[in-house]
Design brief:
Length: 160
């Protein structure tokens, strides 16, 4: 693992969409050398470079793709700082009601997620699934109903 990735993952400010500017993207681009592009991280870097300006401009799908890439970097390649970036982008995407982000948060809270230090919280999980369902994702309906009918109540539904 190259030390540049820790710097790469921590140098971009995620304070607000208003803070996004060309200078941060230029700094990011300058940090990526040809050596790094030839490494196994090439696909991640290319995707991050492509999605970062879109995400900074408010594109929730690009934010979700950044979450997925940073989550893979954290969990598969154990890149320092990647999990914090993954969490930040996932939350921003979900705040914009991106269905896949809402479902991902539902699953994270349904089981807990060590990478993000998230404990199991069925109430939060149900809320994320419900919001995804209300925003048009039919697959979230089953997960929502499963939690409220089979996992939360003391007296379970007959078909649990």
């Amino acid at each position: 693992m190259k030390p540049i990735f820790f710097v790469l993952l921590t140098m971009v400010s995620f304070a607000s969409l208003a803070d996004a500017n060309d200078a941060s993207r230029e700094k990011f681009a300058k940090m990526i050398t040809d050596e790094h592009r030839l490494s196994i991280f090439k696909g991640y870097i290319d995707s991050i470079e492509e999605d970062l300006p879109l995400a900074e401009s408010g594109n929730s799908s690009a934010m979700y793709r950044l979450y997925k890439n940073f989550d893979l970097l954290a969990n598969i390649h154990e890149v320092n700082g990647a999990s914090a970036q993954a969490w930040a982008w996932l939350q921003r995407s979900a705040a914009l009601k991106h269905p896949e982000a809402l479902i991902a948060l539902g699953h994270i809270y349904k089981s807990g997620y060590k990478t993000f230090n998230i404990e199991k919280d069925l109430e939060k999980a149900a809320e994320y699934f419900k919001t995804a369902w209300e925003n048009g994702d039919k697959s979230a309906e089953f997960s929502y109903k499963d939690i409220i009918e089979c996992e939360l109540p003391n007296e379970k539904a007959w078909d649990c």
